[in-house]
Design a protein that fits this description.
The chain is an alpha/beta fold. It has helices spanning 13-25, 36-46, 62-71, 88-100, 119-131; strands spanning 5-9, 29-33, 50-54, 80-84, 111-114. It contains 5 helices and 5 strands; from the N terminus they run βαβαβαβαβα. A 5-stranded parallel sheet has the order 2-1-3-4-5, sandwiched between helices.
């Protein structure tokens, strides 16, 4: 059986290694990138089953990449777990403010986890989202 591909978009090397290793030992195929620009290109090339996306990154950050994902007909159906040191409430408020400035509403992510994620919780959430 083919392993489910999970794209990890995370600028912190330690976190990329942690998440990639965690997913690989749990039977997934992790693909790691460092920023939103690289992440969006890899998403188009690979069409992953799930994306784990850091919110705060240099250059093109996670919010901008998320906005681009949800505006792209090919990618908008891919479930996304937003991962950040920012509290969920703060992120949701920011997303709400962005939505007031645009005609195209950016939907809430499929899931949101604060860093550092609990290993078991992240694996379970990833599995559950891909079963939908």
């Amino acid at each position: 059986m083919e392993r489910k591909k999970i794209l990890i978009v995370e600028d912190e090397l330690d976190m990329r290694i942690f998440i990639s290793t965690l997913l690989e030992v749990n039977g997934f195929e992790p693909i790691a990138t460092r920023d939103g620009k690289e992440g969006i290109q890899r998403a188009r090339d690979l069409l992953p089953d799930l994306i784990i996306l850091d919110v705060m990154m240099p250059n093109e950050g996670g919010v901008e990449m998320y906005r681009r994902l949800k505006a792209d007909n090919l990618l908008k159906g891919i479930p996304v777990i937003m991962l950040s040191a920012i509290a969920r409430k703060t992120f949701c408020h920011y997303l709400k403010m962005l939505n007031r400035q645009t005609d195209k509403v950016i939907p809430d992510p499929d899931a949101y986890m604060e860093k550092p994620p609990e290993a078991e919780d992240l694996v379970k959430l990833a599995s559950d989202l891909m079963m939908r």
